[in-house]
């Protein structure tokens, strides 16, 4: 289908706009410095954010947003987009009204709230500075299709009940745990036969640790404050009859023992970059987003968004997107990007697995 671009324009900053602000990077920011850079090669300074608004006459408006991850994590960026939408909806000169109403929840940029007694920022910087800061081509594959799957509240409850029936003493059996475990097992099964059934499969996920570290970081801190978990299981176990339950247990244990444990959540953080480097080349699935986020509710004055897409998953091998469902109360939306034959296999396994 051909697309005609009617007009392209740049929108300059208005007179009296806020001056540039420089803030230092904490070790939790530095770790993301080379993650999905914006694709430009002629900048002396790397842009941290890009916006694109496209009008489809008679159809609607598409708002595109890209940011360098070291600007802030999803909690920060989602908060910014929702605030931006609210101010846009108010229109006119109501920005000050919004700021006054939300004074207690305005973003905090003070990097001193991130406690770093070990000087991990220096350790990370020595590693990162050895990697040239350059534009990444980040070619998006042309052989993939994208699809959105919905787990309704009733589906999520069934999955939770199934896990608890098999593992009654298991804690942290959340909507995230069962959704991640279910999608992970469906994804692995959709591949078909592999050469080594004993090969390890990894599920890697990040989590907001603002309230999980000591001392805690304010909820409205704008920046990166993420820990991570990495569940690993043999391929043949995920394929088995108990694969979903085993996956849910592995993810739940990572949350319990690592992310929800204040003594463990940052333990060994100085080694995170080397640990992540070892993950290159392994069979892994990641996740972008969270059940907590509801960007479809961001109303710029045109009503709620009809569709939310996380396009970065097109270039990853492999990742799922995750957010609250727009149309199913208590449900979740999962985005996948796979080659068409594998997507068809995934869809069949996903649908069939919920028939119990």
TrEMBL record:
InterPro entries, per database record: CAT-like_dom_sf, Plant_metabolite_acyltrans
Keyword Signal: no
Keywords: Acyltransferase, Transferase
Entry-linked Pfam families: Transferase
GO MF entries: acyltransferase activity, transferring groups other than amino-acyl groups
Superkingdom: Eukaryota
Protein name per UniProt: Malonyl-coenzyme:anthocyanin 5-O-glucoside-6'''-O-malonyltransferase
């Amino acid at each position: 289908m051909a697309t005609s671009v009617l007009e392209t324009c740049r929108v300059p900053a208005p007179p009296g706009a806020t001056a540039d602000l420089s803030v230092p990077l904490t070790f939790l920011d530095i770790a993301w410095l080379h993650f999905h850079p914006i694709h430009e090669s002629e900048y002396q300074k790397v842009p941290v954010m890009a916006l694109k608004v496209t009008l489809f006459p008679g159809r609607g408006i598409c708002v595109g947003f890209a940011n360098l991850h070291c600007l802030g994590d999803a909690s920060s960026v989602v908060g910014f987009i929702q605030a931006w939408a609210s101010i846009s909806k108010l229109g006119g000169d109501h920005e000050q009204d919004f700021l006054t109403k939300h004074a207690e929840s305005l973003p905090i940029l003070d990097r001193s709230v991130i406690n770093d007694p070990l000087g991990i920022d220096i350790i990370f910087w020595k590693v990162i500075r050895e990697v040239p800061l350059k534009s990444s081509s980040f070619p998006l594959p042309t052989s993939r299709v994208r699809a959105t799957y919905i787990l309704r509240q009733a589906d999520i409850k069934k999955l939770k009940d199934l896990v608890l029936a098999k593992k009654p003493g298991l804690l942290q059996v959340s909507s995230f745990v069962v959704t991640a475990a279910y999608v992970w097992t469906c994804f692995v099964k959709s591949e078909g036969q592999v050469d080594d059934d004993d090969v390890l499969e990894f599920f890697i996920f990040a989590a907001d640790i603002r309230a999980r570290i000591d001392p805690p970081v304010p909820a409205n801190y704008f920046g990166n404050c993420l820990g991570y978990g990495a569940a690993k299981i043999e391929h043949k176990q995920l394929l088995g009859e108990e694969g979903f339950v085993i996956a849910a247990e592995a993810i739940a244990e990572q949350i319990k023992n690592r992310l929800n444990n204040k003594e463990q959540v940052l333990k060994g953080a100085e080694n995170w970059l080397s640990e992540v480097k070892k993950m290159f080349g392994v069979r892994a699935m990641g996740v972008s987003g969270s059940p907590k986020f509801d960007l479809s509710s961001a109303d710029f004055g045109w009503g709620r968004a009809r569709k939310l897409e996380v396009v970065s998953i097109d270039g990853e091998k492999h990742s799922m997107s995750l957010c609250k469902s727009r149309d199913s109360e208590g449900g979740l939306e999962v985005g996948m990007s796979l080659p068409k034959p594998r997507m068809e296999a995934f869809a069949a396994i996903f649908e069939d697995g919920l028939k119990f």
